[in-house]
Design goal:
There is one protein chain. Helix content is about 0%, strand content about 45%. The chain is built from no helices and 16 strands. It has strands at about 5-10, 15-20, 25-30, 35-40, 45-50, 55-60, 70-75, 80-85, 95, 100-105, 115, 125, 135-140, 145-150, 155-160, 170. The strands form four sheets. Strands 1-2-3-4 form a four-stranded antiparallel sheet, with no helix packed on it.
Length: about 170
């Protein structure tokens, strides 16, 4: 009941598939492929389920009137939660900490990565000083002790859990 999705993720227990179709974010049952729910967002660039699968983070378009890009969907109630934050609305990657308490996303200032508290999407920490172009990838190590960020120039950095750069950044090349 949908065209091919441009962005697709599956929840941790492999029961729900979330995909983006133009301005629609659609949740599907993985076994039956029945549509569970549909949400309308402008210019979705990234989606990611929390580690427990209870929340879906959405990074979407932002403008002068609507200064928000990060939104959260509660999967149990199928509602968009009130909390929101302004990240880089073009960011193609966001990442949850393994405990689900922090959401990492490229910040509104190019090259920064913001760590947002899940409870209210307030900024816990800002990782800066390494990237001077668009951050393309972010991921946590499975134990949450480290976070890796990479940008379009091929520069990557490893950060420890307190937000400090671990050693020097490295250039991998484009």
């Amino acid at each position: 009941d949908a065209d091919d999705g441009s962005i697709v993720v599956i929840n941790p227990n492999n029961t729900i598939l979330a995909s983006v179709h133009n301005d629609k974010l659609v949740l599907f049952d993985v076994e039956t492929l029945d549509k569970i729910e549909e949400f309308t967002f402008d210019k979705v660039s990234a989606i990611e389920f929390s580690p427990d699968g209870a929340t879906l983070a959405v990074n979407k378009g932002s403008n002068i009137q609507v200064k928000e890009s990060l939104r959260l969907i509660d999967i149990d109630s199928l509602t968009v939660l009130e909390q929101n934050a302004l990240a880089d609305y073009r960011a193609v990657d966001i990442a949850w900490s393994p405990d689900g308490e922090v959401l990492a996303a490229p910040g509104p200032e190019e090259g920064d990565v913001e760590l947002y508290r899940m409870a209210d999407l307030s900024i816990k920490d800002t990782l800066y000083g390494v990237h001077n172009v668009e951050v393309q990838c972010i991921d946590y190590r499975s134990d949450g002790k480290y976070l890796i960020t990479g940008d379009t120039s091929g520069r990557y950095a490893i950060w420890n859990s307190d937000g400090s750069l671990e050693g020097e950044y490295r250039d991998y090349g484009k």
